[in-house]
Amino acid sequence: MLGKPFDFATTWGIFFTAKLDDGSLMLLDYVDFEQDDDSIDLGCGYGVLGMTAARECPNGQHTLIDKDFMAVEYARRNCEKNGLNNVDVHLSNGFNHVAKDKDFSLVMSNLPAKVGKEQHYLYFLDAYARMRKGGRFYVVTINGLRQFVKRSFTEVFGNSDKIKQGKTYTITMATKD
What we know:
7 strands; Rossmann fold; 5 helices; seven-stranded mixed sheet
């Protein structure tokens, strides 16, 4: 990730255990990390996005959440294994179990294709409510969801910026004005 290796542990049943997911790797190439960002990795899996944010934004605090208890366990282990102490990893379905007083300058997600558009839309609404003015929300999706994300970001945030479209994945960003 960004030229600096991490040591990851994972297990069967967590998204993309064989190797790092191409969509997440593509996303990390285009996120504009700032030293003081406070971030949330929405659907963290075993921690790739949130751990990278924690390393690239050492002055911030970073929240990694997932609704799968094994993903949370392995994300926690991976943060400890790699010496990251500016992280909070816990079980949450979307923002349901994120402290109400926490807000974020950076939201990242590799949106699962099979969750359903209604659930994605709720994530976008919840993220908007928890983001700071000027905050950025980056998502990577399979190309089949790119028009939905563009339309939804425009409805929720008032803007949508296609950062990169590849053969399989699209990266889209919205900013809270």
